[in-house]
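Recall the central idea of this unit: under ordinary conditions, the amino acid sequence of a chain determines the structure it adopts. In this exercise we apply that idea directly, starting from the sequence alone.
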Amino acid sequence: MEFALETSPHIKRRDSLWSMLSDVIIALLPATVMAFVAFPLDSLKTFLIAIPAMVVCEWLFVFFTNVPRGDDGRILPFPEWVKYAWGKGSVNNILAPIVSGMIFALTLPASASWYHVLVGAIVGIVIGKLVFGGTGNNIFNPALVGMLFSKLCFGAQWNLNQNSWMVEDVVAGGTPLGNISGGNFGALGDYGILDLFMGWVPGTLGEVSKLAILVGLAYLLIRRAADWRVVVGYLGTFVLLMGSAGIYITLQYGGAFSWLEFMGYQFFSGGLLFGAAFMITDPVTGPITSPSRWIYACFGGALVVIIRLLGALPEGVGFSILLANAIAPALDYHKWLSKGWKLWHFIALALILALSLLVVMLALAYGDILQ
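Accordingly, the structure predicted from this sequence is:
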C-alpha cells in the first residue's frame, strides 16, 4: 500500500492550494470593493498595513526556518542564505498571508488606528499561524486571532459609529447588536432589515454590505472552496436556536415586534454572515470528515446564540469560531475519525442542539435578560 503525505488545507482536493487561495481572494473582492466605496481612505490605510505586515512576517518565517548549512555544518553566507530561503518559499507564502490580511482588515472598523492594525496583524499571523509551523499546520484562524486581540486590547478606542456616505447622519448611535445588549430588545426599531442587509448601519469594513458577502459566499460554494455543510450547519443552528429564543421574546413583548423582525435583525446584524462565509469555512482550522464538520459547525452556531443572548458582548461570532477551531483537532482524533455517520455523531449533534436550547430557554425564563 502506498501512502501519500499531504498537508491541509487541500487534502482530498484535486486542485492546488494556489487555486483555492485565489478563489478566496476573488470571493473577498465584493466585500472589499464595498468597504472602499464606503470608507475609501480608511480602507486603504487598513489594507496597506494589514496585508504587507502579514506577508513580511510570513517571509521572515520562511527565511529563518530554512537556514542553509555547508558540508562542515556552518551557516552559509547571507547572499546564499537568501537564495536558499527564497527557493524554499512559494507563491503560497504570498497568497496565504494576503488572504489572512484581507479577512483581518475587513473585520476592523474604519476608525482603527494604524498601530491597532499593525499589532493585530502581527499577533494574528505569528500567534495564530507561524508558531504552529506555518500554512496548513495552524489550528486557529490567523485573521480571527488578530481581530480578537485587537478588539480586546483596543476595542474601547474603536468608533463603530463612524458614518460613511452610505449611512445617514441620523443613523448615528451604537452598533445594531449593541442596541439590544442587556435585554434592550425594544431598540429593534432603530434600524430596518433593509438597512442591515445593505449596510446602511455602523459596523466594521466587512459588514458594509451583506449582499456583497453573499455574492462572495456563492462563489466559494460554486467553486467548492468552502464546504456547504459548514455554512448550512453554522447558520442553520443559529436560526433554529435564535428563532426559538425570538418566539419567546416576542411573546413577552406582546407584539411590540414580530418574530421575523427579531430573526432578521439577528441574522443580518454584526459579522454572522461574514464569519459563516470566510472564517468558519477555513479548511485548515476545521475537521476533515463530513460528520465532524456538521458537529463543528453546529457547535459554533450554538455558541453565537449563547454569547449574544447571555454574554456581556453583543456579537459572539469571533469567539464562537475560535472555540469551534479549538475542538476541531478532537473531532479529527484518529480513533473517532469516520467518513460515514456513526451513532456517536448523531448523539453529539443532538446533545449540542438540546443542551444549547435548554440553556437559552432557562436563561430567558429565569435570568435577567428580559429585565
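The radius of gyration is 22 Å.
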